[in-house]
Specification:
197 residues, alpha+beta, five-stranded antiparallel sheet, four-stranded antiparallel sheet, 6 helices, 9 strands, 34% strand, elongated
C-alpha cells in the first residue's frame, strides 16, 4: 500500500554525540523508505548532545512510525513532533549574484526589502545572506534569479517550539481545530486499515 503524504512534518531529535549516530539515523530512514526534505544538525545547550531537525512529507502515521523506529536507537534521548505546535522555523540562504553597474541598485533594493545582509561586495558580484522561513527564501530566490545567480547554498530548516504566553494564547483556538483534524485523519486511517484487512 502506497503512503499518502498530506503535509510537511517537522521532527526535532535530541541525541547523544556519537560518531556513528548520523549514518545510523539516515540509514534507518532510507531503509524504511522515508523521503527527507531537510536535515539539520548542530550543538545544543547540553555539552554532549546535538539537536537534529528533520523535515519530511507525511502524516500522523508516518510520524508515529518514524518515532518508534528512532527510539530504538540507543543514542536518541528525546523526540519532539513540532508539526502542529506553535514553533519558530528558520533556514539560511547564501547567494552570490552577478552584479553589473546598472543592476546593482535594483539588487540592493531587493536585499533591503528582504533584510538580507551584504557579506561581500565586489565589482562584478554581490554576496547576500538571508535568514527566514521558506516562503521568504523562495520569494527572494524568484526575484533575484533574473540577475544571474553565480553560486547558491541553502541550509536545512531548524525549528524550536514557542514558549511565549501571548503566542500560546493566540494559538489556543487553532490548536483545537488542528487537534480535530489530526484526530479525524487518524480515525480515518484506522478505519481504512480495519476495512482493508
Amino acid at each position: 500500500m502506497k503512503t499518502e503524504y498530506e503535509y510537511e512534518c517537522t521532527i526535532s531529535l535530541l541525541i547523544e554525540n556519537q560518531p556513528s549516530i548520523l549514518p545510523r539515523i539516515t540509514g534507518l530512514l532510507t531503509r524504511r523508505g522515508f523521503k527527507v526534505d531537510s536535515l539539520a544538525i548542530g550543538s545544543t545547550e547540553y555539552e554532549k548532545t546535538s539537536r537534529l531537525v528533520l523535515i519530511l512529507p507525511g502524516n500522523m502515521r508516518v510520524i508515529d512510525q518514524i518515532t518508534r523506529q528512532l527510539y530504538k536507537l540507543l543514542p536518541v534521548i528525546k523526540i519532539q513532533n513540532l508539526t502542529h505546535l506553535p514553533s519558530i522555523r528558520r533556514e539560511l540562504l547564501l547567494l552570490k549574484i552577478l552584479s553589473t553597474s546598472k543592476d546593482r541598485s535594483k539588487i540592493l533594493e531587493i536585499a533591503t526589502f528582504f533584510r538580507a545582509k551584504i557579506l561581500d561586495f565586489a565589482e562584478k558580484a554581490i554576496t547576500l545572506e538571508v535568514t527566514g522561513d521558506s516562503e521568504k527564501i523562495i520569494a527572494l530566490e524568484q526575484l533575484i534569479h533574473r540577475f544571474g545567480v553565480l553560486e547558491l547554498v541553502r541550509t536545512g530548516k531548524v525549528a524550536l517550539s514557542r514558549e511565549s504566553i501571548a503566542n500560546g494564547q493566540l494559538f489556543t483556538i487553532q490548536k483545537e481545530v488542528d487537534r480535530r483534524k489530526i484526530l479525524n485523519s487518524y480515525i480515518s486511517e484506522i478505519e481504512t486499515k480495519f476495512y482493508l484487512k
